[in-house]
Every structure is written in structure tokens, then in C-alpha cells.
Structures
1.
Amino acid sequence: MAIEQMFSRWATRRRYTAAKNVAGGRTRELAGTVRFRCRLEQRTVTNAEISAGAVSESTGWVLFCGPAVDLAADDEVVVDDVAYLVAGAPHVVDTPRGPHHIEARLTRS
């Protein structure tokens, strides 16, 4: 399958760094943006999939993108003018040939 079919949408990753404002308080400063192809799916997962404990359901989003995309926890990802936060470290899915794609859980920001 061609990457255009597998990842049919465009996303923008925004990475922020911590900075001090004029008053000496902490603020976030945009460090850079990257545009990449992706697929976004809404999923319902149970708490048992996330951690041990009582089973509950929550709806979230999973972002799929190519293995070369640099994603990190707490990055902001914008897809179709909607902003999401990367929740936790993205997961690289490997094959015998090497990295295949990245999966990242997202929450609405």
C-alpha cells in the first residue's frame, strides 16, 4: 500500500520548550513545527488496556505516521484544524525489515 493511501491526512507537529516570561514566570515557547502525513482514528479503550485496576472505558485518538516522524510526549499535533496532545511516549511498530510506523495516543488539547 502506498504511503498516500495509508496516511491520507496531513498533520502539523508543534514542539514547545519551557521559557521564562518577562515577569520571571514559566511559559511555553514554540520551538518549531513539522508537517507530515498521517492517519487519525478514534478508539474506545478499557482501563485494563491502559493499566491494571478497575475496568472503565474512555474514548481517545490514535495517530499513525511514518517511522521517520519525530514525535515525543507532550508534543502538540494539529489535524484538520483540531489540536491534540501526544499522551505518553509514541510507540514504534517494528517488522523484520525495520521500523514500519509510529502509533501515538492523543488527547484533545
Note: The radius of gyration is 16 Å.
2.
Amino acid sequence: MKKDTLDILHPLIHDLISRESDPGEIHMCPNCKGKLHVSIQILKHAHPPRYLAVGARCEKCKIEGYFHFDESAIPPWAKESIINNMSLEEALKYLNEDSEEE
């Protein structure tokens, strides 16, 4: 990712993952004020650590960036969001792994 792209998107991405609730997918692009699509996901390998992956792409100016943050940056709402999208069996396994790590 080019440094200017990082400088443009990073403040917004940091703000979004710092919020107390899920900020949603569509935001205003800090570069052109167009529609910026943001995807926030927890990525988990076969074994820890998990990390937070954030992708952003503007429909209008086509600026895009992908950011990875370590597990300590995962906001509580992101954990809840991923659990809500899991089957019951997957959610129970995920919660059991979390409690074993603590």
C-alpha cells in the first residue's frame, strides 16, 4: 500500500475499529467524499493468534487499502459479529477456545 493511501485511510479505519458498536459497511471516503466500502473481519488460523483484518475501497476514486491489526485491536462488537454469523456448533467451539486462552 502506498504511503499516501495509508495516510488517507488509516485515521478513518482507526476511528471505526475504536467505536463501541459496529460502524457498518458504508462510509464517506476521506479522499473524494464518495462511497467507501469497509469490511471488518476477524481472521483466525487453525491455531491462535487471531487478528483483525480491515479492507476499504472507494467506488468513486478507487482508493483502497487493507489493514491488519493484532488480536488486541479486536473490538468487542467484532467478536459478537463473527459469533452471530456462525452456526451454533462453530460459536460454541469459538467461545470454548476463547475461554481456554484466558
Note: Residues 3-18 form the longest helix (16 residues).
